[in-house]
Design goal:
By secondary structure, this protein is an alpha+beta fold. The chain has one domain. Helix content is 52%, strand content 18%.
Length: 66
Amino acid sequence: MNRQDILRKMLRRIPNSITDAQYKEVASKAHGFVGADLKAGKAVVVGLVVGRDCDCRQGVVLLSRD
């Protein structure tokens, strides 16, 4: 399983309009990232999309409402 597959699997339950090209681009920029890194990144992006401030420290993603 490559990073593109991991990203697709992580986002399969979240409605989105991400294209194949976008998955490929993100995956190419995530070289060296492991699944936990991608998961943390997903939490940050989801937090930003739903309008929350995100604070990442010590490997923990904290979400708070505006």
